[in-house]
Amino acid sequence: MAPRKDTIFQRFLAPAFELLIDGEQLKRLSQSIDWNQAVTKFGDSENFVYPEYYRSQNFHGIEGGYLTRDAAVTYDAITQYVLPPGETLVRQGLIDAIRCQPTTILDLGCGTGSTTIMLKKAFPRSWIVGLDLSPYMLAVAEHKAKQAGLDILWLQGKAEATRFATEQFDLVTASLLFHETPPTVTRAILKECFRLLKPGGEVAILDGNQKSLRQVPWLTEIFEEPYIKDYAGDSVDAGMGAAGFAAVLTEELWWLHQVTLGVKPLAARAGFTTREDAIASGDWMAAPGY
Asked: What InterPro entries has UniProt attached to this entry (predicted)?
């Protein structure tokens, strides 16, 4: 699908990226992937229903959004220039903020797998899953992981309804996902994170700095993101608290980005909602903080 010509991105930024991006390299990447096989492998066309909020939007002003081959091929090439002071530094901020030592990890909305791969390198003994809606993005992610010699499971699925077992993961992450989901879906994703985590498990969310986006509104206009204004006016901290997470903390990264962390209370394993409930029951070890 072709990009719209009237967007800010197409009028002002796309010409600059054309000078910065190696078109031949992207062509080689595209030719190295069997796209028909990838769509068949990752896309359950008969049974999978794409959410309306995802299927109906033109992310970054591109018709078809992430459900196109071109979007997947160009994603990394563009993203390296739009995450100041550098994509790797920003994604490393999420890795550095993680406080647990996970053996099971789920990376939601993994896209082309950049954060997922960094998580695997940081926790090499972990079993890690990258989940995304786009089979095209997953095809690039798998290609990158194979090039790096990393064993990662890539699956198509909805972050708000993953179909994984309850309490299956030590760590659930999401990078640059929440600004691309409407508020109702964001809240559903956080509830799903809570369900998926083992008691004491951790969630880590990397995205735009909500405070900065509110202070400088034009930042929400550049890349034609359909839900970024809703994201800017929302609070990941509040969403985590509402989902049941404790020890919620947001750390600012390079002014433009933020990492928000939360822990599923140990009390959750016994069905308690507060530390006081756990202590009153006599189950001291189930209380948060023990």
From this structure: Methyltransf_25, Methyltransf_Superfamily, SAM-dependent_MTases_sf
